[in-house]
Each structure stands twice: as C-alpha cells, then as structure tokens.
Amino acid sequence: MSAPKKDPRVDDYIATAPAYAKPILAEIRARVFKAVPEIEETIKWRVPFYVLGGKLVASMAAFKAHLKFGTWAGMKPDMVDVTTLAELPSAKETAERLKAAAAYAEDASAKKPPAKQTAAKKVAAKKTTVKKAAAQTAAPVAKAAKAKPAAKAAGPKAKS
To answer: How far is CA 145 from the centre of its chain?
Structure first.
C-alpha cells in the first residue's frame, strides 16, 4: 500500500478554515484516506476534492456557519451539511459511501470513450443519411406521378 497522496494546499485550506470546521475537515480527510488509500487529494474550485482515475469521489468545503461533505457518483453529489463532528455520518457509513463512490469512479475510468469520428467519416455518414432520406421521399413521389396519368386516362366520362 502506497502513502496517501496528500496535497499541501489542503493543509493550507484546513489551517485557514473557521475554527469550528478545522477538526471536522481533519476527520473527513482521515476517513477518506482510510476508506480509499489510493485516492488523490487536490483542490478544485478552491475547495478540497478527492479523485480516483481523474473522476470525482468526494469533496468538502467549509463556510462561515456550516461545512459540506459529499461523495460523488458521476456528476451527482450526495452532500451532508454539518456544524459539529457529532453531525457527521458514522465512520462506517462514511467508509461505505466513499467505497461506493470510488467503485463508481473506477468503473467510469475503465470504460473507454467511444472512438471519435474523423471529419471525413462524419461527412460520408451525413451524405449517406441524406441519400437514404432522398430515396425514401422520392419513391412515393414517383409512384404518385405514375398513378396520375392513369387516373387522367380513366378520367370523367364524356357527356352524350
């Protein structure tokens, strides 16, 4: 097991946080690294985030009167507002949420993005689609054109 990938900017973030938030932030940080030791710590949008394979797993942010801690599944955060350590979910629940978010991140990282089409392939695909649409539109028009002369030939009967 490798050493936690801590970011010194998070140390600075915790040091400058409001007094009530410092022990909560430190506890969350410890829980994150305990639950998912291979996670990477960073700062995004001026707050601490935890990522795995480039995917968001967790975040925490301290405000004047409360703190937010969340786990992420894709771009959907599951946030908790707290003002004291006692309001944090249990260590067990936090670990379960973190492990589930990490598993989601690993699955998302393992999936390869679809291959990008080249500009030439896009143009060819568009031409094929246009040709198919034109052919589908032209067939009923051609049938209708052929049917009209026959209808005229049968046309109204001459008056006697």
So the answer is: 52
Which of these, 71, 57, 53, lies nearest to 109 by C-alpha position? Answer: 53
Distance, in Å, from the CA atom of 123 to the CA atom of 126, rounded to the nearest integer, reads 5
What are 35-65's pLDDT values in tens digits? 999 999 999 999 999 999 899 999 999 999 9
For residues 35 and 93, the answer to whether their CB atoms sit within 8 Å is no
pLDDT 10s digits, 63-115: 999 999 999 987 889 999 999 999 999 999 999 999 999 999 988 766 655 55
Rounded CA-CA distance 75/53 in Å is 15
Confidence of residue 122 (pLDDT cuts 50, 70, 90): low
Residue 151, both tokens = 């209808």
Task: Report residue 8 as tokens.
Answer: 């010194």
Are 61 and 28 in contact by the 8 Å Cβ rule? The answer is: no
pTM: 0.66
- 34 and 95 Cβ atoms separated by less than 8 Å: yes
Cβ burial, residue 89 (10 Å; 0-12/13-18/19+): middle
CB 70 within 8 A of CB 78: yes
